[in-house]
Amino acid sequence: MVASTLLEGAENAPTVEDHPGHDNAPDADMHPWAREMYRRGFSFNGGERTKVFLGSGTGLVDVSDVSNADSPLDGRALIATDFDDDGDADLFVHNIQRERHHLFRNEVNPKGVGFVSLSLFGKVNEPIGATVYVTPKGTGKPTAQVLSRGAGYASSQPNSLLFGLGDAKEAQISVRWPYGGVEDFGTVPSGARVRLHQGLGKAVPRERRRTATLADPLPPGLKLALGAKVPTLLFEGKDGGRHRLDPEFITREGPVTVELWASYCRPCIDKLPKLAKRHADGERIIALSVDVPSERPRAEKILMNAKVEFPNYFLVLDDDVNETGFDTMIDLMRLPIPTELILYPGGILGGVRTGRRNSLQSLQGTHSEDAGGH
């Protein structure tokens, strides 16, 4: 599972002095060590980070580092459900530290992979304890889930269950009701969202919920906000010469995309041919490599193989250069790559697109574009 958080990191959490009521009892009676630990923003979990595992069919693979759900906060409760009703489970996490919450949106479900979403309704009460069996067509092997509502420490579960179908186009559904027998609800197509009412004997379709757009956060390491003016930047060309780029000057004829990439970044390399096509279609693009000088010949060869014709430069990484412009714009130790910075006329940061996804954060809002090719 790959997910994205909608909230900022723990480094911006308020201190104990900023939290109303935390300067008086009962916290005033806390052990001094515990109070100091809280004041500094530390956690009682010993710094153990959130873990996310991906089922491989034969076991579990730890994908915590690449999931964006790798939070240092002290999680205490978890709800796993389809918040945006797109057919895959998202995660809502309550953290005891600073009472902060995170919503991690699952965006890894590939197109064509099926699912069914089921909501259960008993004759009188909520059918807690009901077991739902879903058998994808062609497999003959049912999978089962229990409507438990309680799902872990201080956690809950909605009254809906989500089943993955893989490549199956439909699935057979049956329910073993609490204090009752097994009821067959027939076959439903892949992608169906249905209600199962005890005693009805057939699934009742429901429309997909109209949910609010869940915006991506700006990437960590980006110091500028959307709408801010981009500073003049210092580049090095492949000939070793220094060049100053004035964002206001280069955007006088329209937006310019600055692509941050590196030769050691496989997604960056895979993306270059798509950038070349976008450039050929009229988009103004500048490639900016963050490779160290020893890796620059390799980066140049990669650009040549990708048939890149748009301008490409390298970051100035000399310690004796005090001001390159990037110091006030990005933190290379934290910024994920590839990252696109879309500069609007006037040298304004108008949009950011990060990683493999097509989602673009812009002054006009969050949307997806096939042209991104992530």
Label this structure with key terms.
374 residues, mainly beta, Immunoglobulin-like, Glutaredoxin, 3 domains, 4-stranded antiparallel beta sheet, 4 helices, 23 strands, 10% helix, disordered N terminus
CATH topology group of the largest domain: Glutaredoxin
The largest sheet has its strands arranged as: 16-15-19-18-17-20-21-22-23
Instruction: Evaluate the radius of gyration.
Output: 26 Å
What is the averaged pLDDT score? 78
What order do the helices and strands follow? EHEEEEEEEEEEEEEEEHEHEHEEEEE
Which CATH class of the largest domain is shown?
Alpha Beta
Can you summarize this structure?
This protein has 374 residues and is mainly β.
How would you summarize the topology of this molecule?
Blueprint: E1 3-5, H1 32-39, E2 53-55, E3 60-62, E4 75-81, E5 90-95, E6 101-106, E7 114-121, E8 131-136, E9 143-146, E10 160-166, E11 170-176, E12 182-189, E13 193-197, E14 204-205, E15 233-236, E16 242-245, H2 247-250, E17 256-261, H3 266-280, E18 285-289, H4 296-305, E19 312-315, E20 339-344, E21 348-354, E22 359-362, E23 365-368
Parallel strand pairs: 7-13, 17-18, 18-19
Antiparallel strand pairs: 1-6, 2-3, 4-5, 5-6, 7-10, 8-9, 8-11, 11-12, 13-14, 15-16, 15-19, 17-20, 20-21, 21-22, 22-23
Describe it for me?
With 374 residues, this protein is mainly beta. It has 3 domains: 3-106, no CATH class; 114-205, Immunoglobulin-like; 233-372, 3-Layer(aba) Sandwich (Glutaredoxin). Helix content is 10%, strand content 32%. It has helices spanning 32-39, 247-250, 266-280, 296-305, and strands spanning 3-5, 53-55, 60-62, 75-81, 90-95, 101-106, 114-121, 131-136, 143-146, 160-166, 170-176, 182-189, 193-197, 204-205, 233-236, 242-245, 256-261, 285-289, 312-315, 339-344, 348-354, 359-362, 365-368. The strands form 5 sheets. Strands 16-15-19-18-17-20-21-22-23 form a 9-stranded mixed beta sheet. A 4-stranded antiparallel beta sheet has the order 1-6-5-4, with no helix packed on it. A hairpin with a 5-residue loop joins strand 15 (233-236) and strand 16.
